[in-house]
Structure formats: structure tokens, C-alpha cells
Design goal:
With 89 residues, the chain is mainly alpha-helical. The chain has a domain at 21-81. Helices cover 61% and strands 0% of the residues. Helix 3 crosses helix 4 (69-81).
Length: 89
Amino acid sequence: MKLSQEEKNLLDSVEGGEWKRIPNFKQEAARYREAARATLRKDKRVNIRMAERDLVRFQKTAVHEGLPYQTLISSILHKYINGRLVEKT
């Protein structure tokens, strides 16, 4: 397996014992697991209109990322409403 330099650095750090498990790991893991489930739960349908060129760009980006374009759009909206979408400069 070919690793990037960043991945190699992380692996060296883990193998070097620099990483420690947090004290309440089981509780935190359960909390994050539930958050992931809630994020993936799709219980409402939304129809929107957008410019065709924007849709095509979403579709191209989704192919590049290896996921369905509707999932990409949903993820972007989720990040935006949670204040985690950062604008490129």
C-alpha cells in the first residue's frame, strides 16, 4: 500500500506511542456513532431548482469524490447550516 507523506507521519506517530485513548472513549464513541447515524438518516425529501451548470458541477465533483451527487449536496447543506463550511480564498 502506498501512503502519502502525511499518512506516513500519522502512522509513525501512532506506532511511536504518541497517541493516547481518551478516558471516556466508550461514551464518546457512542455519541459520535449516533451523530453519524443521525446524519445519514434520510427521512425527508426536498426538491429544489438550480442552474443546470451548477448541477453539472455538483455531478462532476461527486464523481471525483466517489459519491452520489445528491449525497454531496446534502453534505454541503449540512456543513453550511452547522457552520462548518469554509469558503476558499
